[in-house]
Specification:
The structure is a single chain. By secondary structure, the protein is an alpha+beta fold. It has two domains: 191 residues, Jelly Rolls, CATH 2.60.120; 102 residues, Orthogonal Bundle (Arc Repressor Mutant, subunit A). The protein is 43% helix and 23% strand. The protein has a seven-stranded mixed β-sheet. Helix 3 packs antiparallel against helix 4. It is globular. The model has no long low-confidence stretch (mean pLDDT 89).
């Protein structure tokens, strides 16, 4: 299984559309931070926007087709860039979604706002291995035309579903939001300037075999020379690439994946702690107990009770 499919198998994600915004200038949106396990998203259907957030000082310009993810879940502001006082907006609740409108004129912003909910401890992995914010463009790019076109088609479907109250509309919009998360990560990993972290690492075709091996066989006692051979490079070169792109070592990523597996098994199965330890690659239950408490802040027994 490819690493992204395996990641979603380990880490269930639930998407939700919260608002469709229709604003004429001047307008302003103040948002965040959201719930502890939430990653907000904004999809610009029409118009343009300026983003300012507490994670970076430089404003970011967004245009139609841009999809913004905020894994850092920081407070952020979006506005029309005019500097004028924003006109008041009001929410109009439909059966399956909510529309936020203002009486502004001129070029209008059409924006889908939602979030992805990821249960603990899996949300921590994404926050640790993804940048605080990044943008992809759902359009026909020469280097990743297929994925960008797929994403554009999905967003167009969300646009139609959020225009009228169709039967099953809420379920459809949330399911499409969840699919959008996977497509956004796929598209981001395919770009030449992939965001730093896991996307840059997995997007490098030379390193992809090592990433897939760690996700698919986390119980195996992988050594750096073994992973380097999979990638046809030296041990030192592989270690340097992991540090440059991910900011962490291969062993740190392996431990994180093992802890995700262990947390799932302790929550869902009746296996003993020793059996879970062996299943995720620890020969010693004591070593597993120490590693789990270091990463999770609680013992396996306490996690299971929680």
């Amino acid at each position: 299984m490819d690493w992204l499919s395996r990641l979603f198998e380990l880490m269930p994600v639930r998407g939700r559309l919260d608002l469709r915004c229709s604003y004429g200038a001047p307008w302003r949106i103040d948002q965040g931070p959201g719930a502890a396990n939430a990653i907000p998203y904004h999809a610009v259907l029409a118009g343009s926007a300026t983003l300012e957030d507490s994670a970076k000082g430089r404003p970011l310009q967004l245009k139609a087709g841009d999809i913004l993810l905020l894994p850092g879940n920081v407070s952020h502001v979006m506005h029309d860039g005019s500097g004028a006082a924003a006109l008041p907006a009001r929410n109009r609740a439909a059966l399956n979604f909510t529309i936020s409108e203002n009486p502004g004129s001129g070029e209008r912003l059409d924006l889908l706002c939602g979030h992805f909910a990821i249960s603990a401890p899996h949300d921590r992995l994404l926050r640790s291995y993804l940048p605080p914010r990044f943008v992809v463009h759902a359009g026909a790019h020469a280097e990743q035309q297929e994925t960008a076109a797929q994403l554009a088609g999905l967003v167009a479907l969300m646009r139609r579903e959020s225009a009228d109250d169709h039967l099953g509309g809420r379920a459809m919009l949330n399911a499409l939001s969840t699919a959008m998360f996977a497509l956004v990560l796929r598209l981001a990993s395919e770009t030449e300037d992939a965001p730093s972290g896991l996307l840059a690492l997995a997007g490098d075709p030379r390193l992809a075999p090592a990433v897939a091996a760690l996700f698919n066989e986390p119980a195996r006692a992988w050594s750096l020379p073994e992973l380097a051979r999979l990638c046809n490079m030296s041990r030192a070169t592989l270690a340097r690439h992991f540090q440059d792109k991910l900011g962490r070592s291969a062993s740190e990523l392996l431990t994180e994946i093992r802890m995700m597996h262990a947390a799932n098994e302790l929550r869902q199965s009746q296996l003993s702690t020793g059996a879970v330890a062996e299943q995720v690659g620890y020969q010693s239950e004591a070593a597993f107990q120490r590693a789990f408490k270091t990463h999770m802040g609680v013992t396996p027994a306490q996690w299971r009770k929680m």
